[in-house]
User: Fold this.
Amino acid sequence: MKSPRFGIALLVRRSLAQHAVSTAITALSLALAGGLVMALFQIQAQSRAAFTSGASSFDAVLGARGSQLQIVLNSVFHLETSPGNLNWAWYQKLSADPGVSFALPYALGDSYRGYRIVGTESKLFDEALAGEATLKLAEGRPFDDSLREIVVGSFAAEHSGLKLNSRVQPAHGLVDSDEHHDEEYVVVGIAAPTNTPNDRVLWMPIEGVFRMGGHVLRGAGDEYVAEADQDIPEESKEISALLLRFRNYQRGLELDQEINRGGTEATLAFPIARVMAELFDKLGWMNRVLTLVAYLTVLVGAASILASLYNTMNERRREFAILRALGARRRTLFAAILGESAAIGAIGGALGVLVQGCIVAVAASVVRRQTGVVIDPFAWHAALWAVPLLVVTLGALAGVWPAWSAYRTEVAEHLGPTS
Amino acid sequence: MDAALEIRDLRKTFRSPDGSVHVVVDLPALELARGEQVALRGGSGSGKTTLLHLIAGILVPDAGAVRVAGREMTAHSESARDRARAELIGYVFQTFNLLQGYSALENVALAMHLGRGADVERAKTLLARVGLGDRLHYRPRQLSVGQQQRVAVARALAGKPVLVLADEPTGNLDRVRADEALALIREICREHQAALLLVSHDEHVLGGFERVLDLAQLNRAYGSQFAGGQA
Assistant:
């Protein structure tokens, strides 16, 4: 009965152990290379998914005439600047539109310690109106539309230390500046995490933005400065963007036609997912170049298996000759060397998955810090098995030459001193 | 029953780098009965290692026949010769040729695996028999020279060989150890009913055998000024 304990697997294991240092170095270089390839695939797929579909529950954004991408980045991702303002009339018109189920105005421009402040209406917190777009609270209550109250996004609360009843003095502009408004707002609510860019935002009544000291409204053409205890005329009100949910897709298409093709005043970014997908498509070539470079490093890793195995061939001739003298066949030695290089590939591929996990986890935390978008570092991707398989295959291929060299060992010449 | 070893008209030549051909082995006949122990007297240049390699099927002769227990060791197929070697022959080398990365037990069991299959219990029994029952997991480097030789002997017997070939097996040992090793090889071959063909130039070693053959007379190529032991 053959005992597998003493078969090729033992030869492979012993040889790997005897050359532990070069085994470790080659496996590690393969792991880094393979992990990089997997991480690129993973980051590309996960960030695309997160930035296209996961970032917003709204269907469309209406902004001033300009780039759809800029409008989306500004109002959904809270990056970039606004291309300009829209008249309040757009809000009135579209919230009355029977095809629109929910319309939410944004007034942007202020910030607190680098976190952007969005002026909006408290209906954002009302599930009956906002549906899926509702912002749920972890603590406290929604702001009152007529008071100086503020709700803090979860990430902003966590990192700025703002708590219920904290006082906030907004800064003028989108970067952390010394130019503070005089008004003080009280934190009345902390939002639950949404895993979207909204987690990095402070929410306050839009009326508050209108009335903030130093703000000027140009909705009516001339400059209007809000005064206390006095209603602001509707025609003077301005918004930065209008976020929309449609009752059906068809209405979005109609409005797209009407506003983008037929009008000159505003731009409708619809659907939001498409606008972001186009951005990723534009950047796709960069990802392909990076992936190509990563593949090349995998090849270099495989070549280093070849080099390190080939270098040990001469010192191992005697061992091969002894094994042959004991009755081992040439193909057994061939298989043992091939097994050894494939095993190095397998170790590298398996470690590569871990390396991938680390790279993606770091990338995910950077993306979250920068944008608030949450990428799942443990998501499944086909590259997670395809790339290790590729690494094992390349490892085995790299072993063919050394294995052939072992195969050709002539026993009589290498059995040691003879007389 | 077939003889343990049967050689007929065996001839092996080597080609020198300058193109000239030298006869190294030219041996009309040699026969060992089952379990028989024969010593071959042969020094440097007698072609002894080449002869043992031919018997073991490591080298292929230019002409003639080698049969071990009736099996051709001159078969055209190399893998058939490898198989026959693993199943029928135990080889004890002057330099032991143990696998350095493997324990005593693994050296023995690996040799068995290449033949009829590894039997760990048998490997342990054999190592205990040669006095290494407490050294099963030692690597060759951790063993004395004499102990290494005993591992090599246990390994040679592991595959239940019909014929054990011993090439100057005591050459690396001092007198006392050489006597011990020789006694051990002969006893253990007897116990396992394996024939023994031992080659040595040491008269002290040869003296103990009932049948001693002189390779100088047996091998007609001997004495040729070109007859090197190894190509």
